Amino acid sequence: MVNENLVKDVVKEPYKYGFVTDIETEKIEKGLNEGIIKLISQKKDEPRFLLDFRLKAFKKWQKMKEPDWAALGYKKIDYQDIIYYSAPKQKEKISSLDEVDPKLLETFDKLGIPLTEQKKLTNVAVDAVFDSVSIATTFREELAEHGVIFCSISEAVKNHADLIEKYLGTVVPASDNYFAALNSAVFSDGSFVYIPKGVTCPMDLSSYFRINSGDSGQFERTLIIAEESSSVSYLEGCTAPMFDTNTLHAAVVELIALDDATIKYSTVQNWYAGDEEGIGGIFNFVTKRGKCLGKRSKISWSQVETGSAITWKYPSCLLLGEESVGEFYSVALTNNLQQADTGTKMIHIGPKTKSTIVSKGISAGNSKNSYRGLVKMGTKATGSRNYSQCDSMLIGDQASANTFPYIKSQQPNSEIEHEASTCRISEDQLFYLQSRGIEFEEAVSMMVSGFCRDVFNQLPMEFAAEADKLLALKLEGSVG
Amino acid sequence: MEIIDKIKTNKSIDNQTEIKKICLDKLQSSPLPNPRSEQWRLSNKSKLSNFLDYSVNKNNSKIDIPYPKNSQSTIRLIIGENCQINLIEKNYSIQQLSEDELQKYIKEQISFFNQNENWSDLLNLSLSCQNNILGLKINGSKIPPIEIFSHASSNSLNAKTLIIFLEKNCNVELLQVNLGEDNSSLSQATFFCLEKNSSLNHGVVSYGVNKSNLLNSLNVIQQKNSEYNLGSLHFKFNYARFEIRIKQSEGNAKTNIKGMQITKKDEQISTYTKIDFDGPNGFLDQINKSLADDKSHAIFEGSIIVPKIAQKTDASQLSRNLLLSNLAQIDTKPQLEIIADDVKCKHGATISQLNEEELFYMRTRGITLKEASKLQLSSYFQEIISFIPVSKDRWDLLDKLLNEN
Predict the structure, then answer these.
(1) Judging by beta carbons within 10 Å of its beta carbon (0-12, 13-18, 19+), is residue A368 exposed, middle or buried?
(2) Which domain holds residue B386?
(3) In a domain, B50, yes or no
(4) Which of A37, A123, A293, B301 suits A51 as a labelling partner, its CA being 20 to 30 A distant?
């Protein structure tokens, strides 16, 4: 018989990224109105079209209602009690990393993010976002040699306004949903990636998002454009300090893949999840969507979701181009009083499009973990295929695991397959491993890792190691 | 929608019993279900309003039974026409429920009703009059098979209610046939209570003709060690909705469901199931098949709810769908809500067309495409049809389905 308490101990792990960096920041007053939006736009010295985009989004947001269909319960968010812009004070223009405030570098160093020169050997270009602004982007010159643009979205607005104007809001329109409209109105920073025709990005690109301030929300926006026959692998990581208040994070990610282009987007989300009583933690409401515009284009989402008090996230693919491919690989681990309602949408519009969904949910403690997904075959999606698999693992009898797959087909010449299962840590397997001299804790960890292997196999090298470590950490406790 | 106006004004729905009053009160604040709720989101609004367009008919026209009565041992009842029964035999008894028993049971059920989820039940109970309610309690052994017919007359809305108590240790085979006539709406609500160690093999066959509508709800409570097997078939309705709600109130019960819906022309047929496991060691095996052709729309939504108390539940649900036309559509949503950790739960869903390789193989053996398609369909239908009890030898449902294709 598995000792329930032992398993519970195993899944307890203090949050190690919960420190606050003591740095002088520039904040604007709390609240949200047209004046605040104009102020954000003015601070960022934005062109007129962007201010119009923001104001239009704000008007739409005011008319919208906060969605309540997700299987989530949280106290009402007071949108007027949030600071919509917060940035560490620093010199206007940074020409080299040496000019970045050492405290900031130290922060990212503590988080294990390679910003400083000596760590560049890891060969991953990083854009580090601290509260509302991008601090530094590494490897720029090297990337520029290949024509790759990798910078903060604020810089892109200044230097590549044409691309921003052409693509911003084309995948996730401002009116898409409540949180996307909010983001469109107040987004502060984020990353911009442009891969020119025929270029395979020479290194993995990475964004690291850090919330430092307790009362400001983070609203970043990421836009990735992969031109014909190009390819890129993009990684995203997130952490936040421990506060006993809830911080709002509402991001929008837009991906566009043209003919034969491939975008691989991987996320390890480890925002602060709140304490055991459910106090504090990040409210994570994210809209991520990719548009496979070109023929044979491919967008692949892989995510490891371990943090946040509330997760509301459905990375999706619009499969427009003929023979385009969408993929979604996800591991969501919830513990204590965390709640996650996550999944994907695969909208098959073009012919011969294919999609794969593999979702693994692990719920422990008193948490709630839901998979919610939509697979839709449009009338023109002839010869299209979808395969979905969502498995849940329950640890303890207080956690809940739900599956809500919506499947809709309007095309007879297409195939949809969906399967889902629920299981627990198998006593037999545990007994077997323990009888071979493997400690209880390690055995549980091995089994969870095995349960998630299908997804971890899809993560880039750097992230696979981090994800495995992260899960192991979450599952490492005071046993023995 | 004449009926909704009547409900709103509470006029001319005469002979109000206490139950009717309770249901009317519940409906008055919001007479129609919320079209944005999960249960009604996909339901065709104009078809539902067409359902409610007919005036309520308390009298019943003559019913045309689709197959002959065979052995004398089969008990045949027609709701609204011939439903007075009081059989006390050596081994068994089938008796009418008393007015008090009926009232008590239905009142208890209504207290659990949810406005959107049980809207069809509320409507039924507000409209059905005394001679369209059949309440039975059955006990004993060697009970002969029972057939119960409900039908709607042309140009009217008929509401029929069936309530059956299966007392301890009894086994029953029951076939329920719902027939729709041209331009008619049938509201059928069924309530079963399966006591300890009882078992029910239940078949539901519903079909209409041109422009028939049906709201069919089925509420089953299963006590310990009871077994409920359901085989259902719905076809040829302009608009039909089959709602199945099963509660294993103490766990340790078995439920098997095999259902099928076939839609053509611009029909919409949907099946909603909700299985609640309120105790440990529950078992469910469910398969739902849909076939959509022409411009029709088939919908399946199934939810399985496993709370903390329902440890060792073993539940599986499969939704298999055939989409045969470019203009038809299928929506399916099998869903699991699980809190108990020591459970085996799985679900699956597929949507495809007829298997091309199998068709090709048969054609290389000299079978025409039409014949080959028929063969494939017959195997697809057979799994469900063979699960429908009572009339197997007298009613060739498979033939009826294939020849209407």
Answers:
(1) buried
(2) 355-405
(3) yes
(4) A293
Query: Does residue B197 sit in the same domain as residue B72?
Result: yes
| % helix, strand, coil for chain B, step of 5 | 20, 40, 40
What pLDDT score was predicted for residue A479?
A: 27
In degrees and rounded to multiples of 5, residue A276 shows phi and psi of -65, -25
Please give the structure tokens belonging to residue B106: 């239905």
What gap in Å lies between CA A358 and CA A203, rounded to an integer?
A: 26
Whether B311 and chain A come into contact, CB under 8 Å, resolves to yes
Asked if residue B314 belongs to a domain, the reply is no
**What is the rounded distance in angstroms from the CA atom of residue A428 to the CA atom of residue B281?**
20
Least CB–CB distance from B326: residue in A379, A395, A401:
A379
Q: Does B42 touch chain A (CB under 8 A)?
A: no
| The token pair that represents A130 in the structure block | 């601290």
Separation of alpha carbons B212 and B182, rounded Å: 6
A201: left (phi over 0), alpha (psi -120 to 50) or beta: beta
DSSP state of B382: H
Structure tokens at A228: 């014909």
Report the relative pairing of strands B92-96 and B133-140 from DSSP bridges.
Answer: antiparallel
**Which chain A residues are within 8 Å of B346, Cβ to Cβ?**
419-422
Provide the total of helices (H) and of strands (E) in chain A, helices listed first. Answer: 12, 24
Identify the band that residue A477 occupies on the pLDDT scale cut at 50, 70 and 90. very low
Is B283 within a domain?
no
Give tens-digit pLDDT for A161-213: 999 999 999 999 999 999 999 999 999 888 899 999 999 998 888 887 777 77
Alpha-carbon distance B158 to B155, whole Å? 10
Q: Which of these three, B249, B284, B316, is where a domain ends?
A: B249
Q: Is B294 near chain A, with CB under 8 Å?
A: no
Residue of A290, A297, A251 lying closest to A171 (CA atoms): A290
Q: Read off the tokens for B81.
A: 């026409």
Q: Which of B201, B234, B249 is the last residue of a domain?
A: B249
Give A124-149 as a DSSP string: EEEEEEETTEEEEE-SHHHHHHTT-E
Cα B100 from Cα B122, distance rounded (Å): 19
Cα A229–chain centre separation: 25
> In a 3-state reduction of DSSP, which class is residue B351?
strand
- Considering the domain boundaries, does residue B128 fall inside one? yes
Q: Which residues of B touch A418 (CB under 8 A)?
A: 334, 347-350
**CA angle A314-A315-A321, nearest 5°?**
130
CA distance B308 to chain A (A): 6
By C-alpha distance, which of A202, A204, A325, A315 is closest to A259?
A325
Contact A417 B348 (CB under 8 A): yes
Distance CA B397, CA B382 (A): 9
Q: Could A409 and B337 be called an inter-chain contact, meaning their C-beta atoms sit closer than 8 Å?
A: no
Residue contact B341–A396, C-beta within 8 A: yes
Q: Which of B304, B311, B341 to mutate to test the interface with A (most CBs of A within 10 A)?
A: B341
Q: 3-class DSSP state for residue B345?
A: strand
**For strand A246-249 and strand A262-269, is the pairing parallel, antiparallel, or unpaired?**
unpaired
- ipTM > 0.90 for the complex: no
Residue B366: pLDDT over 90: yes
